[in-house]
Amino acid sequence: MAKKIHTPVQVIENNMRSGYEKATLPLPKMILLGILSGIFIALAGSASNVAVHNITDVGLARTLAGVIFPVGLIMIVFMGGELFTSNCLIIMNVYGKRLSFRAFFKNLFVIYFSNLLGALFADFLIYFSGQLNYSAGGVGAYTIKVALSKVELSPENGIASGILCNILVCVAILMVGVARETVGKIFASFFPIWAFVIGGFEHSIANMFYIPTGILAAKNPVYAAKAQELYGITTEQLESLTIVNSLQNFIPVTIGNFIGGAFVIGGLCFVIFKTHYGENTLEAIKEQTDSE
């Protein structure tokens, strides 16, 4: 007999309990789980890049990329990794006065830079693996194009796109909590992420693959020449792909991701369901959840 799904109230309670545990992890474990997630997201991004690099129709390319990219979150869900964007939901414990702002922001800070370490590790491996050589350097050229489009994004676009992205990511995480079985969790992870990729929304951790790998590719004369040939990218544009200029994307997108996760989804879910758990302690929540 199939297990019943969790109710929304149970999902929020479980997520808060899980969030408290995330925020109180030992620092070494927190860092390692963050690194693991950065690697997973980078691998998902690289696979989607290879799949779509020769597709000129934007809608079709994003649809196919959206089919592949969710594997990153699926791996995180089943391997227990820690991801900055989904960890924004931990703020519900702050709203409920079960966790301090200091503990919340400490977790986000550690996980954000651990995700970066993991992504950069994967980025260098991907670059030196020869993957960007596919299609006579076409994947490298496409990687440059994608990175350039992100660096040239305006701050207001970055914030708005980041908000929309993390609404979908956090909804995916909460939907995973609804399902009790493996297949249900996979589908719950898949569809919201598919939607965010099709929408072209900005994810700060995914950009830790797209932008640094694009910077590396822009320094390669073969990929740079191919980018000029295929996309008309100028020398000035290639030179604009720098670590400093990448902050034009990372800062607004990270702010947008935080707003979307901590205030839009985290805030709304807490307000909607707070009457169901009120001033209950974490222990009471655990007892209630375990008994159901």
Descriptors for this entry?
292 residues, mainly alpha, 80% helix, globular, Glycerol uptake facilitator protein
The gist of it:
With 292 residues, the protein is mostly helical. Helix content is 80%, strand content 0%.
Q: Can you put this structure into words, describing what you see?
A:
With 292 residues, the protein is mainly alpha-helical. The chain has a single domain (8-291), classed as Glycerol uptake facilitator protein. 80% of the residues lie in helices and 0% in strands. The chain is built from 15 helices and no strands. Helix 1 (8-23) crosses helix 14, helix 2 packs antiparallel against helix 3 (58-68) and helix 4 (71-79) runs antiparallel to helix 10. The radius of gyration is 20 Å and the shape is globular.
Mean pLDDT: 93
Low-confidence region ranges: 279-286
User: What kind of sheet is the major sheet?
Assistant: none
* Alpha plus pi helix count: 15
Helix-strand topology string: HHHHHHHHHHHHHHH
- CATH superfamily placement: Glycerol uptake facilitator protein
SS-based structural class?
Answer: mainly alpha
Alpha carbon gap, first and last residue: 16 Å
What percent of residues are in strands? under 5%
User: What would the principal axes of the Cα set say about the shape?
Assistant: globular
Q: So what's the CATH class?
A: Mainly Alpha
Question: How many β-strand runs?
Answer: 0
- Tally the structural domains: 1
Give the CATH topology. Answer: Glycerol uptake facilitator protein
**The CATH architecture:** Up-down Bundle
Rg is 20 Å
Question: Considering DSSP H and I runs of 4 or more, what fraction of the residues is helical?
Answer: over 70%
